[in-house]
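Can you give me the bound-state structure? Components:
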Amino acid sequence: MKPADKKAYDRDYALAKKTGKPFFPYAIFKDTIVAGLTIVGIIVLAIVVQVEVGEPVNPATTDFVPRPEWYFYFAFELLKIFANQDVLTPVIMATFMVPNIMIILLVVWPFIDRGPERRIWKRPFAMGMIVIVTGMLCYLTYLGANSPAGVASQGLPVGGLDEAGTAGMQVFMNNGCGSCHMVAGVGAPGPGPDLTNFGSKGWDEAKQIAWLKAPNPPMPSYASLPPADLEALATFVNGLGTKYK
Amino acid sequence: MTTKDIGPKNPVQKSADATIDYVDERSGVKTGTRWFLFRNIPEGTSWFQTLGFTAMVVFGMQAITGIILAMYYVPDTRGGAYESIQRITEEVTWGWLVRGMHKWGASVMIIVVFLHMARVFIWGAYKYPRELTWVTGAFLLLLTMFMGLTGYLLVWDQKAYWATVVAVNIFASAPIVGPYIGDILRAGPEFGPATLSRFYSIHMLVIPGAIATFIGLHLYFIVRLGISEPPWSKRRLRIERDEEDARREAARERAKALPGAVTYPATWPAKAEEGVR
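Here's the bound-state model for the whole set.
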């Protein structure tokens, strides 16, 4: 904004204030009504949809669905989008780049858009930005709300299982791997990558076990599993799409 | 305002006045109240401009219900945290309601803060001179989201635990500083008892303190700079119309000054425009 524009705004606002009304009671009156209705709404929600007590924490069984509160669904969905493309757009995009760029843009926005214009129809760029960002947030939240919890508990449609493979599949199901990974169309489509064809990567057992113990975030570590289970799980995952399909 | 002295005052009122005067002499409370409450705001402020106040009231409600919950909550992973949540929900009188209000209040606060921000954005109210009001507000939005993140773990059930493990892993994945942030949040390399008390302390001491500070700054800016006028207030529209008229008038004058210009009767174009309007 040029100094002349600033002066013009200051003069105009001083005039608006001069011909205005006192904050108390005119603004406070409206404020109190809206805030009061909001509090009443919260109390009604608390009575109608009562809180529940979930299952107690058990860090040993990883049979879980890692679902955040609804206002973090967008971040959760973002993870899914980037999870299956670990070459061009690694997960770091979803966990670090995109959120931080958005946060920085949010904070410094007044220093980017400095023009004096305030009318909606004369600011197409700013309006385009808010429509796109809000639309994306709503869409991702909607996806998150409707994403299947999809923990595979009945078994996976995988053939050719030998003894080690069956044991590995059992470990896979008991530890809720299916709440982040899909195998042959069963399980949640993210945040973890689809494992249907994981065997084609040609990992050996040691590499797989090392990964399970210290994976890349946001996947949690499975170092607490017994060594026999880790071995079976590694054999199963390494054979997906090759030995077991 | 001058008042006519009609005799000695009621002694109660007299001593009340004396007390107020005593406090005002030392604190300036009268000036402060006038500055805060009886400042003028532009006429025709909109209902959309009540959302900021609403967010603040919901924060107040969260503080009160949070204090009540803290009286019963035990941040102990070895049999305490989960059991105390169960006790609050099932045994404590009105406990289910207070916990329900706190939980729903969090969701409503996120929505209200977001709508408030959208209003400010759409109106261009973040422009000169209110840039720093926006910056403090943006920090308030981030702090509100951190409140949700840290509070989610405290109920200490499976869903909350594993969602928070994943969330902390996300923070820890940041380059260079990530591992340190992860260790700070977890209070060590592993999730455990220390993690819960750390989240509890961040949730009820660190972030509320930060939010209160930023609300103070935000309010100071608002009172100092005044709340913005709707871009389509009656007064603004009138000014824009007058400017448009002046521009047309100037164009007409220029056209008249051109060599060979046809001069119409002075009343004609004005009347034609009146009809359009």
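A couple of observations. Chain B touches chain A through 87 residues (CB under 8 Å). Chain B is about 75% helix and 0% strand.
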